[in-house]
């Protein structure tokens, strides 16, 4: 278990595996930073097909777990009636107050409206709102604290148990985590049993599985052997669930649909991604992704993340991110879970899907190529945002465009553009001049980038 590389099998085929991978990556980074110095870790997540490989950047040595000092990675989430105060058994635990996050967001919106009424826009507006902005991950805190998601209690049990066990059993916790992912054949059950025997009955070794961390699981008739039919929750080893919770804070973007009583959670699917780059990129993405209608929000999430990724590569002079010069080298796309409120007290997971990222430019070698790609993305972003999803024609258009994004097939784009042309004429006849055409230059370049073999046809004077 003392090695450089660790392995997270894709056992469920859902974003549960991704959350585990991000959670493990963060714990490895914390270990390296404690031993070798702050901000020295170079942890990388790699998708190897049937599993994630986590590169710790250095070999984790056998004596490291014994040299660690206790630390809190998950905050104990305050907010609501049930969790209004610190747990008495852990007065020094790391906390986060979701009610304060909500209040900060309300102040931000109020101030934004005041400044907008004063005709303050652009960069001046951004600067004036700096002190009012909520934290980038405020939606994660409020999402977990929403009683209808039924996860705050589970999350806080995980945060509290980590805090308390680390006072005595920190090395055991760390070694158990390392052992669970030391190889693809590692037995979680064996590691769990070894942990339970050393700790005894002082702490629980199993915890209820939440649909927030495990969208494929939930309350129901779940039995490995069909010898009884009973209603109950699934139980999982608490350290596994702890890693999923850590991963959620790192890689999830929860949002609300504005046209239905839906919650959507977007989880980034990495292909080859350095954790230190990811954190900066994802915080900027969270900051810019707002609630929208259900289908449009799916599209905007993928377009926006790609824009933020390109911005970051130029701002940080980090074009080396694109090691084989494609966006898809870094990110596969996004898993998205849709939760429907079926009762006054609970959201229920209704659908799991996968969204691809726009991967139209095969070669990204220079800032000029980044700017070209960004200009195309921004045009698509503006055209999509102007489509009204509440109308049947707008809804169908958005579905077609989402199909194009997810499949990256030109035929789907041509189908969308044919319908968009009819839609554009119809809207202009209604004097809806905010609906604009796609530019010929950008469409031509998109087709050339997606299918280079079509370039001679597009460049022909007769075309």
Radius of gyration: 24 Å
Order of helices and strands: EHEEHEEHHHHHEEHEEEHHEEHHHHH
Low-confidence segments:
none
What's the main sheet like?
4 strands, antiparallel
Number of helices: 15
The CA-CA distance between the termini, in Å, is 62 Å
Estimate the mean pLDDT confidence: 91
Task: Give the overall silhouette.
Answer: globular
What's the β-strand tally? 12
Which key phrases capture this entry?
12 strands; 15 helices; four-stranded antiparallel β-sheet; globular; alpha+beta; 463 residues; 14% strand
Write a brief caption for the model.
This protein is an alpha+beta fold.
Topology:
Layout: E1 5-9, H1 15-36, E2 44-47, E3 51-55, H2 64-67, E4 76-78, E5 95-97, H3 98-117, H4 122-128, H5 138-145, H6 152-180, H7 188-199, E6 206-208, E7 235-237, H8 238-251, E8 252-256, E9 262-270, E10 272-274, H9 275-288, H10 294-315, E11 331-343, E12 346-356, H11 367-385, H12 392-407, H13 410-429, H14 440-450, H15 455-459
Parallel strand pairs: 4-5
Antiparallel strand pairs: 1-3, 2-3, 2-10, 6-7, 8-9, 9-11, 11-12
């Amino acid at each position: 278990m003392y090695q450089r590389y660790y392995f997270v099998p894709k056992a469920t085929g859902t974003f549960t595996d991704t959350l585990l991978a991000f959670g493990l990556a963060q714990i490895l980074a914390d270990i390296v930073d404690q031993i070798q110095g702050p901000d020295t870790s170079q942890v990388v997540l790699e998708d190897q097909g049937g599993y994630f490989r986590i590169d710790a950047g250095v070999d984790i040595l056998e004596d490291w777990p014994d040299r660690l000092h206790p630390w809190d990675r998950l905050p104990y989430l305050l907010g609501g009636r049930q969790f209004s105060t610190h747990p008495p058994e852990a007065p020094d635990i790391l906390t986060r107050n979701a009610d304060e996050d909500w209040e900060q967001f309300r102040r931000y919106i109020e101030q934004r409206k005041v400044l907008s009424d004063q005709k303050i826009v652009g960069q001046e507006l951004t600067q004036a709102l700096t002190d009012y902005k909520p934290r980038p991950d405020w939606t994660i805190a409020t999402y977990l604290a929403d009683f209808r998601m039924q996860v705050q209690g589970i999350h806080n049990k995980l945060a509290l148990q980590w805090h308390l066990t680390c006072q005595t059993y920190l090395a055991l916790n760390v070694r158990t985590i390392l052992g669970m992912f030391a190889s693809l054949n590692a037995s979680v059950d064996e590691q769990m049993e070894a942990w339970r025997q050393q700790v005894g009955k002082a702490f629980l070794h199993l915890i209820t599985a939440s649909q927030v961390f495990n969208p494929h699981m939930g309350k129901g008739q779940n039995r490995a052997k069909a010898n009884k039919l009973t209603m109950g929750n699934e139980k999982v080893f608490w350290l596994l669930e702890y890693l999923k919770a850590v991963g959620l804070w790192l890689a999830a973007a929860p949002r609300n649909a504005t046209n239905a009583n839906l919650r959507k959670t977007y989880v980034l699917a990495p292909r080859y991604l350095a954790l230190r780059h990811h954190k900066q990129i994802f915080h900027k993405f969270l900051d810019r992704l707002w609630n929208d209608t259900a289908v449009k929000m799916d599209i905007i999430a993928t377009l926006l993340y790609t824009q933020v990724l390109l911005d970051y590569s130029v701002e940080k002079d980090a074009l080396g991110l694109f090691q084989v010069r494609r966006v898809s080298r870094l990110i596969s796309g996004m898993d998205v879970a849709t939760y429907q409120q079926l009762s006054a007290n609970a959201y229920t997971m209704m659908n799991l899907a996968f969204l691809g990222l726009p991967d139209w430019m095969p070669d990204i070698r220079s800032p000029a190529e980044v700017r070209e790609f960004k200009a195309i993305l921004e045009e698509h972003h503006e055209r999509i945002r102007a489509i009204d999803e509440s109308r049947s024609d707008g809804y169908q258009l958005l579905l077609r465009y989402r199909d194009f994004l997810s499949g990256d097939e030109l035929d789907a784009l041509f189908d969308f553009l044919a319908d968009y042309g009819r839609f554009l004429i119809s809207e202009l006849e209604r004097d809806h001049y905010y609906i604009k055409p796609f530019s010929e230059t950008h469409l031509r370049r998109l087709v050339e980038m997606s299918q280079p073999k079509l370039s001679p046809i597009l460049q022909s004077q007769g075309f």
